[in-house]
Design goal:
The chain is of the alpha+beta class. The chain contains five helices and five strands. It holds the Pfam family Acetyltransf_3.
């Protein structure tokens, strides 16, 4: 699962991504591919200026994906997991930093229609 949320996107141009993989799909590069694809959609497709994400501190897989695609650490915060408090690592990626690492093998199709349906035309 891969979510991209652009709360007040027209004002700030920022997005937050969230992802989840079933345990049988982890450690195969799928998470990194998913994140690179959604970042390409965000920055190239809809013109985001910044992307954020977060993961519990002990989630080394998710934090490793964020680090590997270029996010930088951006503080910590608290969240609840299974009824218990846990620290979350926050991550931030600017458009400029993404441009230095962007992949050239991802193609977007139907973006004019997509932008229109999102009210971004």
């Amino acid at each position: 699962m891969q979510d991209l949320i652009g709360d007040q996107f027209g004002t700030y141009g920022t997005v937050a991504s969230f992802s989840w993989l079933s345990s049988d799909m982890r450690r195969q590069g799928v998470g990194t591919e998913m994140r690179q694809a959604i970042l390409h959609f965000a920055f190239e497709g809809v013109g985001a200026t910044e992307a954020t994400t977060e993961a519990f501190l002990d989630n080394s897989g998710s934090n490793g994906v964020s680090r590997s695609v270029g996010y930088e650490e951006n503080g910590v915060g608290w969240a609840t997991r299974r009824g218990e408090p846990g620290l979350m690592q926050r991550w931030r990626l600017t458009r400029q930093d993404w441009m230095r690492r962007r992949r050239d093998d991802i193609d977007l199709h139907g973006m004019a229609e997509c932008r229109e349906s999102l009210g971004l035309s």
